[in-house]
Amino acid sequence: MASQPLSLALFDCDGTLVDSQYAIIAAMEAAWRSQGMAPPTAGQVRRVVGLALEQAVAVLAAKASRATRARLVQAYREAFFAQRHTLADTSPLFPGIVAVLDTLDRRGILLGIATGKSRRGLDAVLDEHGLSGRFVTLQTPDCAPGKPDPGMVLLAGAETGIDPANIAVIGDTVYDIRMARAAGASAIGVTWGYHEPEELDAAGADCVVTRVAEVPAAVTSLVNRDHDKALALTA
Question: Does the pLDDT value for residue 7 go beyond 80?
Fold first, then answer.
């Protein structure tokens, strides 16, 4: 019997592992006010969570000049990181996430992250929750194009030696799903984040889960499915 190949569960961060919406909304509001501009609504901000910061600002300030958008980006960074020194637990883990990581780890599935956060921001979140070292690959817009470009998935595969067909992307936005599909990976949508279930389904998710505890079974099912397909093709 052919052995099971290594598989990778590649998680989004904001809206999937951590509930960072309030910190992000507050930092966006501070950035806009620093430029004397009316801030975007909370709903508008939630729509762009998952994109790289520069992409998100470009969407939210589409009519602003390039120079103004650059100032907004810098002001956001300053506001967001200032929160870490003044507020406790600005990006709490969703309940049950650690148990999910433990279960996947026990099943021999490697863990990774592909996020719109900067590497500095991601490292801060992982340190805050004692998760540094849990993931074999960390992909951010610092090293690859932002979502929905497939670059982060492809780079994660290259770093780990895992074919995209054996990668399952887990995320709460259509950007995660489109990134996965473009890379040839499986896509699992989650409903506790910032985009609606029907949007995730329409974007091409292989499945959409409604509870954190359902993630390990969904990952295992998808990577085993793709392994079985590969065996059938070589039989």
Answer: yes
For residue 9 the two structure tokens come to 């569960």
CATH class (in words) of the domain with range 21-86: mainly alpha
Check pLDDT > 60 for residue 228.
no
Which of 4-13, 34-43, 128-137, 208-217 is least confident?
A: 4-13
Tell me: the pLDDT tens digits for 66-86?
999 999 999 999 999 888 766
Measured CA to CA, the distance from residue 40 to residue 72 in angstroms comes to: 12
The token pair at 143 is: 């090293």
Range 8-19+92-234 has CATH code 3.40.50.1000: yes
Given the residues 14, 149, 176, 226, the one annotated as active site: 14
- Which segments of the chain are extended strands (E)? 8-11, 110-114, 137-139, 167-171, 186-190, 207-209
206 is catalytic: no
Q: Where are the domains of the chain?
A: 8-19+92-234, 21-86
Query: What pLDDT, on a 0 to 100 scale, did the predictor assign at position 4?
Result: 55
Q: In the prediction, which pLDDT does 233 show?
A: 37
Token pair for 121? 């921001």
Maximum pairwise Cα distance, the chain: 66
**Angstrom distance (rounded) from CA 164 to CA 153:** 7
CA 128 to chain centroid: 17
pLDDT band at 231 (very low <50, low <70, confident <90, very high): very low
Active site annotation includes 12: yes
Task: Write out the DSSP string of 217-235.
Answer: HHHHHHHHHHHHHHHHHH-
